[in-house]
Amino acid sequence: MDYRIRTDLALEARESFPEDDVEIKGVILTEEFDEENKIRVSTVVIKDERGAKAMQKPIGTYITIEAPELTEADEDYNQPVSDIIAENLLKLAGDYTKDEVLIVGLGNREVTPDALGPYVVDNMFVTRHLIKEYGNEFKARNRLGNVSAISPGVMGQTGMETSEIIKGIIDETHPKLIVVVDALASRSINRLNTTVQLTDTGISPGSGIGNNRKALNEETLGIKVIALGVPTVVDAVTIVADTLSQYMEKTGFEENEINQFVYEIRNQAMNNMFVTPKNIDEAVKRISYTVSEALNSCFAQPV
Amino acid sequence: MDYRIRTDLALEARESFPEDDVEIKGVILTEEFDEENKIRVSTVVIKDERGAKAMQKPIGTYITIEAPELTEADEDYNQPVSDIIAENLLKLAGDYTKDEVLIVGLGNREVTPDALGPYVVDNMFVTRHLIKEYGNEFKARNRLGNVSAISPGVMGQTGMETSEIIKGIIDETHPKLIVVVDALASRSINRLNTTVQLTDTGISPGSGIGNNRKALNEETLGIKVIALGVPTVVDAVTIVADTLSQYMEKTGFEENEINQFVYEIRNQAMNNMFVTPKNIDEAVKRISYTVSEALNSCFAQPV
Amino acid sequence: MDYRIRTDLALEARESFPEDDVEIKGVILTEEFDEENKIRVSTVVIKDERGAKAMQKPIGTYITIEAPELTEADEDYNQPVSDIIAENLLKLAGDYTKDEVLIVGLGNREVTPDALGPYVVDNMFVTRHLIKEYGNEFKARNRLGNVSAISPGVMGQTGMETSEIIKGIIDETHPKLIVVVDALASRSINRLNTTVQLTDTGISPGSGIGNNRKALNEETLGIKVIALGVPTVVDAVTIVADTLSQYMEKTGFEENEINQFVYEIRNQAMNNMFVTPKNIDEAVKRISYTVSEALNSCFAQPV
Amino acid sequence: MDYRIRTDLALEARESFPEDDVEIKGVILTEEFDEENKIRVSTVVIKDERGAKAMQKPIGTYITIEAPELTEADEDYNQPVSDIIAENLLKLAGDYTKDEVLIVGLGNREVTPDALGPYVVDNMFVTRHLIKEYGNEFKARNRLGNVSAISPGVMGQTGMETSEIIKGIIDETHPKLIVVVDALASRSINRLNTTVQLTDTGISPGSGIGNNRKALNEETLGIKVIALGVPTVVDAVTIVADTLSQYMEKTGFEENEINQFVYEIRNQAMNNMFVTPKNIDEAVKRISYTVSEALNSCFAQPV
Asked: Positive or negative CA dihedral for A16, A20, A24, A30?
């Protein structure tokens, strides 16, 4: 079963194990389902190195919020989805919600499926400069959190590693928590623009739909990092390989034949090709708004 | 061999016949290759009903211009590509270039791969109103053609068939030739945003990446129609089916097994999913500019 | 008092008469004020030729809705403003709300203060094609109005008069009412992007912030026309002339001296210069949304 | 003569002195005029504190390049304008052109007249990451400069001072020269979007069309700073005050009467109102492209 293709979602990594009902050693999966709003929250906790190796993800907590009706439902549906995101952010952020928080929107504003991070930052209610000018009494009276935000752009636009830019800004402005927002690649078309993954492990190198990013996590940045990701694309290679390997399994191929086939597809001209829904522009704008509302309610006006 | 999946390119319909070197009855294929600029021009002429049936396209001429280096080359490369498009437009338009021409940009400006038509119209040099105001002497002195242009939007935006809008405008403004510009679906990733198809058959129902459009052709509109299309997407279903059927052929499956498989894929959740390159926003803008330059030189300032 | 500078708002034309409390013959002014929401509705009825001459506007009804807090207030404030616009639209539209309505968004999408019309059309809930496909029972069951919409672009983009395009579309699609949405020029900075004028007189030639438009009214189009306008700019000439003539009046200049001065300013390089607030992009988007909600509730889902 | 209203252009500060032909002590003005391309280059050197006080600008060199035909001329005209900007940048930058350079685009991408900086950065050819990956030999072989670039956004978007962000990035990435690009306010409508000011004094507090920015200069950032500014707006107050005070002077008012009047205008509702040409979106995009070409040729591919 080593023909698995990379996914940025821990939930999908977990799903790719055939033994659905058997616990993988070192990995705990729990689920909740909100009947009324059709929102599923799955929590994968990778407890130790064994689990990390099996899942090919760092040790930590991964919360996946799936709201499959988000792209079709009316505007009122944003509210419950945003509420559940905020609630789960709070689980990871704890008391940090009342501390200085820097929201970082990764990705390239000019490439629609990669523009989630910048779009979220565009909608953030930033307060740091207000508190600096009007003081802590103003902060308390208005029950504000202390939020700053930036969309640094990608390396091809800036010539700099995102980690360099963020480190520099941290050293000058001293936030206590960083929330990194990024577009992800998923295996499943059904999860595109309707799913949010929260994790306290940061963004690992090679994740995201852009490549070559250096890790942004507590180890490299020196402060707590929460990553919020939304799958906006499926790699074309993934979808072809997944469809075909399902079919080959069904028709009795051997595992090594399937692996060989997937290997061949990977070397075809499908690199840098993505599968997206036709309404990607609208779908990314919508989930970006939902995410920014969650971040605003969690950090700019914390309870 | 009936598992062929729809393509909007006549060239691809032709390629799907295995007997590459045998003439299909009623269809003539000729090719030219510009070594210096790496531009290939393939002309498919469907001469009669036999050919039309074999190709599943109306009788007429289909010129395909392939400039595979367009997405990567520097800006100077736009010029030779635009020149070759203009030269082939002239073959189809003949003396109409000096007559009143209406350019219609089909598609939805808000959906990047479907925005080609509106982007082209944005760059058109329109002259009809100038000639109306300053007269034919002004037209002659400045060697202008008579160009008007419109991006009507898609039915989901207007509540009207594009054909209704265009017919109404024709009745009021009396152009002699319509050039319809639209984004197409291709089978081949390599052709995306680097290929232009010109045809004198108009746009057939169901073509284009949006659906349910009524035909825009000489029969329905009452005046000569040239369609200019650029493939900007591959259907996700197509790419999966193509890759798999190639593989199945290679590994000795029977045709009916392959057809069965393709049929199954089609019924999966891949509808309305498209494969695009990551730089789709930039790529569509670039080819739109190249196309608009060709239209401007052919119609706004005809030789 | 002939140094008055053109305004597209009947209310401002009325205000420019010094005798505020005296009725101008042939013109009736009434006012309502919504205390809670700080929204003022002023209705100017020009009854006859005498009034038309005094006001330099055609005979008809002009309703001006002023919501000065619109640019600053939070999102909840859109609702009451939109409700009052819809209520006043209903006064002008009467039973036409249940008939076929075509919304026309005038203006140039690429020029922010002129993009109001296209932005409003972007947000319209069009239903005509649905009713055509699913029939009148579907319309009745869902309590839908019959709405189509188009943003034709301006003459510099299309080479056609807007009136030619609209006439052509009317002849093909047979709406019973046209609502024309356009950006206007105001005299007053305070009204920018916070004021809506409704009128049953259509758009007069030379109105709007773009020039040279042929009239769109019942006489030229053959069906009832309602115009909805929002001032988004003040001419730079107007603001300079207004400020200065106020000052000159205060300091005792003669009327002919003031007129001479205004005449001189008009011939300076201020043509095609506009005064806008710095946040014009955001302000136009906001009022466009409010207007489109009013149109949707009045025509797409009429009571 | 103290009713002068702030301008960001040293050239306009100089022009406001009536004694055109007399040298102001401590200030040297030289001019060149390119007949063929109609481009004027004026250099103001403020040599000492006396000059600084008279001009209300810091000691340093201010080069103003005026290309009045830029907004109307065809695309070929970009080249000579861009060449002259590059040539004058070189005078200020000297050997730094071959060193590490960070281009900073100030301003708010969402507010058209303030978007110049971000637009310029969008067009920058960044090379720093390439040199880091492929080494100095690669740099030499391709004759590249070492360029990085960022558009940090404005304080209302980030909650951080721009100076904090830039300082942090400098400390991590160690550029030797910073070029700060920003939109300016001018006094003259004729200079909008056709004029470029270069200076080695950085951006002074309160400059730019956004407010409250802390200074970005050699003193605060610790490395050499060149500021490149383009006037994109005139304050509405300025244009009214200028027009009127000219008129009042002509008609024999006393200086104190004029000052009193200007003072009154300033307190009116014209704050945050700007005068822009109608085609501001297009004009800012055009000059942004011209500026980015100049920066690219000066720093990314230095001679």
From this structure: positive
